[in-house]
UniProtKB/TrEMBL annotation, chain A:
This is FtsX-like permease family protein. It comes from Desulfacinum infernum. Pfam families: FtsX (PF02687), MacB_PCD (PF12704). Residues 25-212, 534-718 form the MacB-like periplasmic core domain. Belongs to the ABC-4 integral membrane protein family. LolC/E subfamily. InterPro entries: ABC3_permease_C, Lipoprotein-release_system, MacB_PCD. The chain crosses the membrane at residues 21-46, 268-289, 310-337, 446-467, 479-499, 532-556, 771-798, 825-851, 871-892. It is found in: Cell membrane. PANTHER family: LIPOPROTEIN-RELEASING SYSTEM TRANSMEMBRANE PROTEIN LOLE. It is a multi-pass membrane protein. Residues 270-393, 776-895 form the ABC3 transporter permease C-terminal domain. One of its GO terms (biological process) is lipoprotein localization to outer membrane.
TrEMBL record, chain B:
PANTHER family: ABC TRANSPORTER ABCH.1, IMPORT ATP-BINDING PROTEIN. GO terms for molecular function: ATP binding; ATP hydrolysis activity; transmembrane transporter activity. It comes from the Bacteria. Residues 7-232 form the ABC transporter domain. CDD domains: ABC_MJ0796_LolCDE_FtsE. One of its GO terms (cellular component) is plasma membrane. Belongs to the ABC transporter superfamily. Macrolide exporter (TC 3.A.1.122) family. InterPro entries: AAA+_ATPase, ABC_transporter-like_ATP-bd, ABC_transpr_LolD-like, MacB-like_ATP-bd, P-loop_NTPase. This is ABC transporter ATP-binding protein. It holds the Pfam family ABC_tran. Keywords: ATP-binding, Nucleotide-binding, Transport.
Length: 905, 232
């Protein structure tokens, strides 16, 4: 048969059928489009944000091979000269980078990155250019940065936000520094212009140094080696600089940043894929429904000469077309979600990794193609089994329908049993007695269909634990995701076996407790077979996801609450303006430190924080006044004994590291932490691992006194102030101190100050925001699973119309039939919910201990929100039972007379 | 002495709406059947045999007419009484057997009694007696898919008898059987009629039941065209 004829047949046979049963088909398309829409929207948001992040990273590093820093201090200018003298070094560019506040007349302002560099030395590393003005006016080229005083180029996003153009005036503040600059032009969206999402000001190095009053050195020196000279170059740098400076390959930093974002991207993409995955059950249900209701037509088609391959094609195409149409309808659906998702995702990326500023979504043709293929592929996969089953419909069913109940058992007779002599006229007669041989029942069960499914399910579940602990591949927990997939499949495959166990209850006991309809329901479910695994699989998946996320969110929140109250203790926090964004490069001014040290009624815990890179991981070393801190709180330890850790820190023997730092670098208790601060070598034992959920969560803590003694650095990066009294008194004192500091120092230093109560509240809000995206995905999964359950039950009724009418004919009342259907739904829902709950608990452990740890470096204290589960699960059960209504209506659509009428044809 | 008929039908009419057309399944038939009769309904496909059986079985409602079976005015029954009627007054044997595939032979036979609320043990004993009588004692725990046609039909007969209904309705019970098994089924129905006093109404287009039947009603195009006693 030619493809054209096959397509025409598809139109006659399938498309017209779908048109006739429009609402049924539309319901599935709506469900699939929701799943496809969410999937596409998440991909849009994630790829746009991640692309922006990667562009920013590449823009900042350019073609630089290495970066030299001096943790705790600046890199002096003579180092640049020494680097340039090395033959293997092609160029070395000094850089100052600080986040400042930029303001225009009229009050509009923005936090932007001010980058000061030497335009000549930096040119080979990072291309950048300014835009040509539309009216043809001469736009200054980059040399103007060096020749004209107090000038900057603005990134395009900043220019748009503040309405800047060539000649605009801009006021820039940082700490006690303030200057007005003239904008020479707007950077093109390429090279350095893409850094920080375009929220950047580019200045000459001297201009930046003058603004900051920092002439001794620069934040870092980035450079490139001559072609092929990387290994030799790194060795030369180490010889030249010794241990006083930190040298890092920029490729390592890029890889580390990329893998973190990739892990986040994978997390979201996999979760969004679940919405598509659950939609697959919907397609399966519809195709199964159609395959049952059209069985006679298929038999007629076969009797007229259609091949079984054609039948397969017709029903498989249903799945493919449903997928394509679902995707097409999903695109406008995704537009509804895309903007909000983009804001949420880019906000999270900015919060957790690096700034991205995205105004418009971007989706490559590959993403579009991938989403179509994926949606259609998933739908085709769902239609595979029903299509396959229809290939076996014999043409004889065209003349004799399948209502006899005969012909569907194995053609072999069962093993013979002993005959019993009797007197009735209708004895079997003739057969003499002989021995009965029966295989043990248990052995038969193992090799039966249900036994095979259970064995397969258990095998998959057995693989979950070892897979979940396999290490990530390039930072992506591939084995973890495989473990999750096996987990869902494994539990779903246990469903037929679980139902079989339930149906093995003594019929007499069941009859006594719940009546004959319940007995009939159990009989029906006992023989339901593998199809039930797919049907209940949707419910298992939805309940498991819900349970796992409820546990994960509750665990996270509980842990963060404990962390916030123990570790983020303090009534007033203060630090230099934008200190966090600037890696605490500048300490608190001396007069502020003096004032705080002399506060009469307060306990001030000072800390010194030094940004650095360790084994490719950006982190911070923090010296804190441990004695005072312990009076008001402490650390939430994950590993190690708190008391002995504190003793080791106080004596200068040890440091504690955050869980994030430990997971990212592999440093464990007992390992040595070695680094250089202010050119002085540091070597400590790791004596504890604590939980830290700050954005820059990779932190190493030591005692502030030890740090001072080892480095001579007596400055403060910030301080926490503690008051005594009732809660209200404390709040008032903190507020008064804040006002006092503003009055004394506000006009000069622009300190960042926040009340402890507000900070703790803000932290919890940030974590709630991070999980907002996953909540939406969960609701989608529940909705689609509910629709799937409804269609499943309807299919089961349709398949058994003859039996249901026979029941009526032999005396079953409508109520008994309804109760039978309700019991079937109740058992399926019960088994599905229990399996889903168990699956959800296992999934929550994997999410918390494995995937989350590998993706973000965090784990939580395990906590189950029984109240939330207790409230939600009955609702899920009620919704599933509500799904029986269409099935019950269908059961009573025809009168039992159809049993006779069919025979009469 | 005039014996009250066990089935009394007057002007039974059933019109089906097929698309835009009305088709008369039954065009207004009137007849009476005495208790203990064995009546064969004869006629070609579309003559109205199955329609009449469906009305007698309480599976369908007429467009017009009156029907009394064993004292029940069938068409004035509410839903609850109709269910009682199906359980206690009639037992139906179908051409395609219509055994429930997930129940064993014994369970299929017990089903109507259990639905009616009868206790389990007496029901099981009664089922075993009937099945033994029908030669099915070796197949008690087999599923319908494991039975031959003859065995399945005998199981269906036992099911129809479990609640001791006075009237047995059989719709082409030999239609899916070979000659030997078909003959056996007719003999069973004949024995039920002769020795157990059941009134049997059997639809067929063959002559297989002529030897045991006491009366023949011939239908054509929804009307009775012939009504004759076959045995004195």
């Amino acid at each position: 048969m030619s493809p054209a004829v096959a397509v025409r047949l598809y139109g006659w046979f399938s498309v017209r059928y779908a048109r006739r049963h429009f609402w049924r088909t539309a319901a599935v398309i709506v469900g699939l489009s929701l799943g496809a829409g969410v999937f596409v929207a998440v991909r849009l948001a994630v790829t746009t944000s991640v692309r922006s992040f990667e562009q920013s990273m590449d823009a900042v590093t350019g073609s630089a091979d290495f970066v030299v820093t001096r943790p705790g201090g600046t890199v002096p200018h003579d180092v640049i000269r020494d680097l340039l003298s090395l033959p293997v070094v092609k160029t070395a560019s000094p850089v100052i980078a600080v986040t400042v506040k930029a303001e225009i007349p009229g009050g509009r302002s923005a936090a932007v990155r001010l980058v000061g560099l030497d335009p000549v030395l930096d040119r080979p590393l990072r291309p950048w250019a300014s835009r040509t003005a539309g009216d043809g006016t001469d736009v200054r080229n980059w040399t103007a940065l060096m020749t004209e005083r107090d000038t900057v180029f603005a990134g395009s996003a900043l220019a748009r936000r503040l309405g800047l153009g060539a000649g605009s005036r801009l006021s820039v503040r940082y700490m006690d520094h303030h200057k007005d600059f003239t904008v020479l032009g707007v950077l093109k969206d390429e090279g350095l212009g893409l850094a920080e999402g375009g929220m950047i000001l580019l200045a000459d190095l001297a201009t930046a140094q003058e603004f900051l009053g920092s002439f001794e050195g620069v934040d870092r020196v980035e450079g490139a080696f001559r072609h092929g000279g990387e290994e030799e170059g790194l060795r030369a740098l180490e010889r030249l600089l010794g241990a006083r400076y930190a040298v890092q390959r920029l490729e390592e930093r890029k890889k580390s940043g990329r893998s973190m974002v990739a892990a986040y991207e994978q997390n979201l993409s996999v979760l969004s894929f679940v919405s598509l995955f659950v939609g697959m059950f919907l397609v399966y249900s519809l195709t199964a429904f159609n395959s049952v209701s059209r069985r006679r037509e298929v038999a007629v088609l076969r009797s007229l000469g259609a091949s079984s391959r054609l039948v397969f094609f017709l029903f498989l195409m249903d799945g493919v077309l449903l997928g394509i149409v679902g995707w097409a309808v999903g695109i406008p659906v995704s537009a509804l979600f895309a903007r909000d998702l983009l804001r949420a995702v880019s906000g999270t990326v900015t919060l957790l990794f690096a700034r991205v500023d995205v105004e418009t979504v971007s989706l490559s043709p590959w993403d579009v193609a991938a989403s179509v293929v994926l949606t259609a592929g998933v739908a085709a996969l769902a239609a595979l089994q029903p299509a396959r089953s229809l290939m076996d419909v014999p043409p004889t069913e065209a003349i004799r329908p399948r209502s006899t109940g005969l012909g569907h058992a194995p053609t072999k007779r069962p093993w013979p049993t002993k005959t019993i002599r009797h007197d009735g006229p209708f004895s079997a007669g003739g057969a003499g007695p002989f021995e009965a041989h029966r295989l043990p029942k248990r052995l038969l069960e193992v090799f039966s269909g249900t036994g095979r499914l259970t064995a397969l399910g258990l095998t998959l579940l057995g693989l979950v634990w070892p897979l979940s602990w396999a290490p990530p591949i390039h930072g992506i927990p591939v084995a973890g995701y495989a473990a999750v997939f096996f987990l869902f499949c494994g539990f779903s495959l246990l469903a037929p076996g679980a139902l079989k166990k339930v149906s093995a209850l003594s019929p007499d006991s069941v009859r006594l407790a719940a009546g004959e309809p319940c007995v009939l329901a159990l009989k029906n479910l006992d023989k339901a077979g593998s199809r039930i695994a797919v049907s209940i699989g949707a419910l298992v998946t939805a309940v498991a996801l819900f349970t796992a996320l409820v546990v994960m969110i509750a665990s996270f929140r509980k842990t963060v609450e404990a962390w916030v109250h123990q570790t983020v203790s303090g009534d007033l926090f203060l630090r230099p303006m934008l200190a966090d964004l600037n890696g605490y490069r500048d300490p608190l001014p001396d007069e502020v430190v003096r004032y705080l040290s002399e506060l009469p009624d307060a306990d001030v815990v000072a800390y010194r924080r030094i940004a650095m890179t360790y084994a490719g991981v950006e982190c911070a070393l923090e010296g804190i006044d441990l004695d005072r801190l312990r009076r008001h709180g402490g650390f939430l330890f994950r590993r190690g004994d708190a008391e002995s850790a504190y003793r080791a820190m106080a004596s200068g023997e040890g440091v504690i590291v955050s869980e994030v730092f430990s997971n990212r670098t592999g440093l464990r208790i007992g390992d040595r932490f070695r680094t250089t601060v202010h050119g002085r070598p540091m070597d400590f034992a790791v004596v504890g691992i604590y939980r830290d959920y700050r954005t820059q969560g990779a932190v190493i803590y030591m005692d502030a006194g030890v740090l001072r003694d080892r480095t001579g650095d007596r400055s403060w990066s910030g301080a926490r102030v503690f008051f005594s009294g009732s809660e209200d008194q404390i709040a008032q004192k903190a507020q008064r101190l804040r006002e006092e500091l503003l009055t004394r120092f506000g006009s000069r230093y622009h300190l960042d100050m926040i009340l402890g109560r507000e900070l703790r509240q803000d932290i919890l809000e940030v974590f709630d925001q991070t999980f907002a995206v996953t909540t939406v995905l969960l609701l989608m999964a529940l909705l689609v699973a509910g629709l799937g359950m409804m269609t499943t039950l309807t299919v089961m009724v349709l398949e058994r119309m003859v039996q249901l009418n026979t029941l009526k004919a032999v005396g079953a009342s409508s109520g008994q039939i309804r109760r039978m259907l309700l019991w079937e739904a109740a058992f399926m829902t019960g088994v599905g919910s229990l399996l889903g709950l168990a699956c959800g608990f296992v999934l929550s452990v994997i999410l918390i201990e494995v995937i989350n740890a590998q993706s973000f470096g965090w784990t939580f204290l395990y906590h189950v929100a029984w109240d939330q589960l207790g409230a939600a699960l009955p609702l899920i059960a009620a919704a599933s039972l509500g799904a029986t209504v269409p099935a019950q209506r269908l059961a009573f659509r025809h009168s039992p007379a159809m049993l006779l009428r069919e025979e009469a044809r | 002495m005039d014996i009250s008929p066990i089935i009394d039908a007057e002007n039974l009419t059933r019109i089906y709406r097929l698309g835009a057309a009305d088709v008369a399944g039954l065009g207004g038939v009137t007849f009476r059947i005495a208790p203990g009769a064995f009546v064969v309904l004869k006629g070609n496909s579309g003559s109205g045999k199955s329609t009449l059986l469906a009305l007698l079985g309480g599976l369908d409602r007429p467009t017009q007419g009156r029907l009394c079976v064993a004292g029940f005015d069938v068409f004035s029954l509410n839903e609850k009484d109709l269910v009682r009627y199906r359980r206690r007054v009639v037992g139906i044997v179908f051409q395609s057997f219509n055994l429930l595939p997930t129940l064993t032979v014994l369970e299929n036979v017990c089903l109507p009694a259990l639905l009616a609320g009868f206790p389990v043990e007496p029901t099981r004993e009664k089922a075993l007696r009937w099945l033994e009588w029908l030669g099915m004692q070796d197949r008690l725990h087999h599923l319908p898919g494991e039975l031959s046609g003859g065995e399945a039909q005998r199981t269906a007969i036992a099911r129809a008898l479990i609640n001791e209904p006075p009237v047995i309705l059989a719709d082409e019970p030999t239609g899916n059987l070979d000659t030997r098994n078909g003959q056996r089924v007719v003999e069973i129905l004949g024995t039920l009629n002769r020795d157990y006093g059941r009134t049997v109404v059997m639809a067929t287009h063959a002559t297989v039941a002529d030897a045991v039947a006491t009366r023949q009603l011939c239908l054509r195009d929804g009307l009775i065209v012939d009504d004759q006693c076959l045995q004195p």
